[in-house]
Amino acid sequence: QASFYGRKIPAIKVFGGFHEFLYTPEDEVEKIDFPLLALRTRFVVRLVRQVANLQERLVWSGPAPPPRVGLEGQDVGDQDAEVLGLPKGQGGIRVQDVMPGEPAARAGIQVGDVILQFGSVVLSRDGALARMRDAIRESRKQARVPIRVLREGKELLLEIVW
């Protein structure tokens, strides 16, 4: 979605939820909830049909409220955590997209980075995304927030500036 956002192209993003096997070799066909997938697919078809049949084309009217940090990511599962060499219990969020010009991009966060700590909150394997959302809400009171990431096997300390 960031590529559309950056080019000021109207976009619809449908979020299906996170799970530890998303985009991993363990994400096998047996894990797909087909009735739920069918339900979501019907919703998207109706939504796209409605948008396509509008009298006027959608036009860019300015950015939607930007994400608080400006990145998209997913929890690091147990197997990925082991491959990354994380200590037992240490989790993280693998960055999948970074929105240009947002705090994450300005901090130097890159696609593929694994966020290990946001401010004083060390991310655990159980619910890293939820913990980070809470940490983001709390950190908005500060002008600068340290963020520890793993990039290509090396830990880096970056800084989010609001």
Automatic annotation (TrEMBL):
InterPro entries: PDZ, PDZ_sf. This is PDZ domain-containing protein. It holds the Pfam family PDZ_2. The lineage of its organism: unclassified sequences, metagenomes, ecological metagenomes. Residues 68-151 form the PDZ domain.
